[in-house]
Amino acid sequence: MTITARQREGFTMPELEYRAQCERVAIVPLHRMERLELVTGTVGPFRPPQKTSVPLWLAVMLKRSSRCRIVPPEWLSYEHLRARCREEDQPDSLFTRLPTHYLEVAHILLANAEDDLVDSQGVRRLLQDLRETRQSKTRDGIKMLNPLQLQMDNLSAAEINEIRPLFARSFDMLRRLDALAATAEQTQHQSQFSEQPYSELDDSLGSSYLH
Amino acid sequence: MAGAGYYDIDDILAVQERVPCVLRVDLDGLGSAGSGGSSKVHRNSRWALPLWMADRLNEEDYVDMGVSPVFSKRANRMYVASPESIQLRAVSQHFYQFGLHLGDLVPDIPHVLRDMYMQRVQRIARIAQQGHNVESLDFVQSLDKTEANMLRLCQQAQGSIADWQQNKAYTLGRAPTIP
């Protein structure tokens, strides 16, 4: 298998989607089923109409064979997302709190369980709005770039992945430039000192202590 | 001089950039390498040598290495004045990497490069997110190799989410070894 240039820079979206499928969601089973022994743990038993929490991939599988109804997570509702959108729109606000894999989970649920969501079109629209607002915020974030650190709370996995090449490379460049500036300053200092006679050197040392 | 970019082809090409040098010794039989036609090259004649060669000869005191016109005082002032409108590609294909190599020669370089990089990278990020338009065309054509590379990567990263949302991304499959 060949590794594409994109894969070298970080995750690809299908890989992130795969990771997001391990997130837990609640389902309401439509059939009785015994517990399932999986490598990652035991799920079930399934007793309709009791809610059970299962990994997303299993929920999608059961949903496809119409054995369950998926209960959408609390944050994936029109009201909740609209509140988030408003928060996000506030000037000078930070990123609002959303699950790490919110884009991926929303995508999977919208593709596979649209009938279980209330107002799926509205949700879709709000997600798009959220994403665009957050994108412009990350763009503003690059102004704060420095060679030491960068903090952006509540950024999701896909969004981090999106800006990874930009920030990684800029960090690298700034770090190299700073190291260069430091050595250039050092050599300058050394050459200054070596040209000065000793008495002046003492003076300059003394004054630098005073400051 | 060897550093992080040992395996980076662009870093190797960057040291191919020529710098002005002044010869400190008479060289016999090397006239064909320089500008003159005669077989002898005299002391104090000027030579433009690739950086990798000039740096070494400078250490051995065969030549005096000067500052490349790319980073002359006047050029630096220009970079500070209008970082976004410089045609970097025309100045040097490997502008930043060349600058990194010359850093110990001209103490101004790190600061000039840093300010310039920050300004231009912000514009690159904007273009990657919003797509090309007529105004950005000039700017995109002025990018040096480092920046052009960055723009390409950013555009790929931006496009990958959109592609995936429209189900255009590839799907992960089972490895052939798994039955």
Automatic annotation (TrEMBL), chain A:
Region (Disordered) location: 186-211
Keywords in alphabetical order: Chromosome partition, DNA replication, Nucleus
Subcellular location(s) of the protein: Nucleus
Amino acid composition bias (Polar residues), ranges on this chain: 186-197
Short name of any one Pfam family annotated for the protein: PSF2_N
Chief location: nucleus
GO CC annotation terms, alphabetical: GINS complex
GINS subunit domain location: 75-176
Domain DNA replication complex GINS protein PSF2 N-terminal: residue ranges: 12-71
UniProt record, GO biological process: chromosome segregation; DNA replication; double-strand break repair via break-induced replication
Domain of life: Eukaryota
UniProt similarity note: Belongs to the GINS2/PSF2 family.
Self-association and partners: Component of the GINS complex.
UniProt protein name: DNA replication complex GINS protein PSF2
TrEMBL record, chain B:
CDD domains according to UniProt: GINS_A_psf3, GINS_B_Psf3
Keyword Nucleus: yes
GO CC annotations, alphabetized: GINS complex
Keyword flag Nucleus: yes
Pfam families: PSF3_N, Sld5
Chief site of localization: nucleus
Gene3D superfamilies, per database record: 1.20.58.2050
Transmembrane segments: none
Keywords, in A-Z order: DNA replication, Nucleus
GO biological process terms held by the UniProt record: mitotic DNA replication initiation
Family assignment from sequence similarity: Belongs to the GINS3/PSF3 family.
Purpose of the protein: The GINS complex plays an essential role in the initiation of DNA replication.
Protein name per its UniProtKB record: DNA replication complex GINS protein PSF3
Native organism: Coemansia biformis
Gene (UniProt): PSF3
